Amino acid sequence: MSTAPVIGTLDDDDVVPPPSRRRRRREQRRAEASSSHYRGRGWTVAGYVGMALVVLLVAVPLFWILITSLKQRQDIYVRPAQWLPDPMTGENYGDVTTRIPLLAYFRNSFIITAVTSAVKIVLGVLSAYALALLRFPGRRVLFLVVIAALMVPNQITVISNYALVAQLGWRNTYQGIIIPLAGVAFGTFLMRNQFLGLPGEIIEAARLDGAGPMKLLWRVVMPMSWPTLVAFSLITVVNEWNEYLWPFLMSDDERTAPLPVGLTLLQNNEGVTNWGPVMAGTVLAMLPILVLFLFLQRQMIKGLTAGAVKS
Amino acid sequence: MSISATPTAGGSRPPGPPPPVGPAPRRSSGTWWEWTLAALLLLPNLVLLVVFTYRPLVDNIRLSFTDWNISSPIANGVGLVNYTEWLTREDTRTVLRNTVVFTVATVGVSMALGLGLAMLLDQRLKGRNLVRSVVFAPFVISGAAIGVAFQFVFDPSFGLIRDLAARVGVQVPDFYQQSGWALFMVTVTYIWKNLGYSFVIYLAALQGRRADLDEAAEIDGASAWTRFRKVLMPQLRPTTFFLSITVLLSSVQVFDIINVMTRGGPVGNGTTTLVYQVYQETFVNQRAGYGATVATVMFLILLTVTVVQVRFMDRGHQA
């Protein structure tokens, strides 16, 4: 397998450039064979039972939320509960869009996620490139400065940041939400490791061919680093989409509030008395990221678990 | 989840011996234009980190010695008053207890369950990759959405738990009104969201381990429990260490689930953790000075715990 210091998951394929499909399949088979030694029928049965239980554990609450969102109001407040909505109705979904400006929350979420992610990805790649492949004094110190930011929880910085941003008059603005979140520590760490793992001969050869630093980055380094960049991008998108505390403090209403904050406002208004629209809103808020996960699960799992260091 | 994935000690160490690739040794200091380029590439990120991470960290300590109220332009220095207040206030003990209970329970249960499940699934089973994705899925959903959803799951009158319990003739407690049960509710919700993370990482570690050691021990007649303790756990030690730090850091920082589900209640501070108290004192009670004090205390506690964890790991390594 690869020697990259960052491992992902069991179908880890950090090899650069990406191995051919056949090789990947071979490696996967080998990994499976080595890891999946037969331990007797008892283990197999226990394995399937465990799988079934844990799938139920995850799926039943999600199913519960979904069916509630499809029930008529009076059918939610009955005992015992209806496990299949009868009749099934989409009215909660219409209802939720009139009770709160749901579209505005979606718009804000998209704007904030897209802009923050784009800025973070660009800044992360550029700083990682400088820290990995350019020569300048103080490189290690600066790397430590970037990395140590990971140890500072957001929750400790919010008080002072709130004061600063409020002073600038940036509350309820996109820049007030985005700029304080835009510094990137983990992504820089991830990309730097990736760049340091690239074969030195290729980079040296490109340099001797007279490639300037930016051409080297764009034509040589990046084409060999797509899988890690994809992982980094996905972590960033997921984290920004789910970001809560900072936008919650920064925005009072639909001008800038993203979905998770909008959901809180909805819940404040309807609370336990009207679960139908609240569950419909919850389903809508979960849906985009779950769809993304459905299509990119391997890359997302790899990205979100990156950082577990081998050795 | 903002620092859901944190590098282990191995990652945050200075990069050791010069990397074998990349820079050629003879041009180790670079040229002036290379310095300029590096500065241009690094500067925006460094400025953001300094202004929005390091500056507030220091400023937070300064604020903890004032009576600032978050909106006024004036903050008066009050010396150690906030700290003595923290030490003597009655709710301090409750908040610390809630934080410890929540953290220990979430870290312990999600790691133990994650490991158990990973061990069960570390064999050739049909549909294993599907299960891996299903278990991981809640980890990508927003905590706020999960909090709202699980508030209804735990609804004492019409929720999922009540319905299932009633079907087997069990009465459920009032998760909304009873402090202990409210804390139980947010803990379970958090574990549900984060179980997949420990599970996936343990599974990857199990697949990368040396199965032959286990087989050798089995041939030598070691019992299953001995093999687990003496063969498997030592091999998983780096993973366990990594998880204990990352899971702990992210669970101490939980805000979304608590804010959505209980707002720190019931009865005042039934589920208030340190992070939630920082928010409440600063932004609800408008006592930013006191909030900054709690934040500083929390940072010191986190720092101490992490250092102890790293020490503990080092000692275990030498033994």
Which structural traits does this protein have?
heterodimer, A: 311 residues, mainly alpha, MetI-like fold, disordered N terminus, B: 319 residues, 13 helices, globular
What's the number of helices of chain B? 13
What are the low-pLDDT stretches of chain B, counting only 5+ consecutive residues below 50? 1-27
CATH superfamily of chain B: MetI-like
Order of helices and strands of chain A: HHHHHHHHHHHHHHH
- CATH top level assignment of chain B: Mainly Alpha
The top-level CATH class of the largest domain in chain A is Mainly Alpha
Largest sheet of chain B: none
| Content of β-strand of chain A | under 5%
* H and E string of chain B: HHHHHHHHHHHHH
Main pleated sheet of chain A: none
Share of helical residues of chain A:
55-70%
| Overall tally of domains of chain B | 1
Inertia-based shape of chain B: globular
- Most extensive interface, residues per chain? A-B, 137 and 127 residues
CATH architecture of chain B: Orthogonal Bundle
Domain module count of chain A: 2
Mean pLDDT over the residues of chain B: 86
CATH-derived topology of the largest domain in chain A? MetI-like fold
Distance between the termini of chain A: 14 Å
Structural Rg of chain B: 24 Å
What does this 3D model show about the protein?
The complex is a heterodimer of chains A (311) and B (319). With 311 residues, chain A is mostly helical. Chain A has two domains: 39-93, no CATH class; 98-304, MetI-like fold (Orthogonal Bundle). Chain A has 15 helices and no strands. Chain A is globular. Chain A starts with 20 loop residues before the first helix and ends in a 7-residue tail after the last helix. Chain B has one domain (66-318): MetI-like fold (Orthogonal Bundle), CATH 1.10.3720. Chain B is built from 13 helices and no strands. Chain B has helices at 9-12, 32-63, 81-88, 90-121, 128-140, 143-153, 160-167, 179-207, 211-219, 224-252, 256-261, 274-284, 288-318. Chain B is globular, with a radius of gyration of 24 Å. Mean pLDDT of chain B is 86; it is low at 1-27. The interface between A and B is large, with 137 and 127 residues.
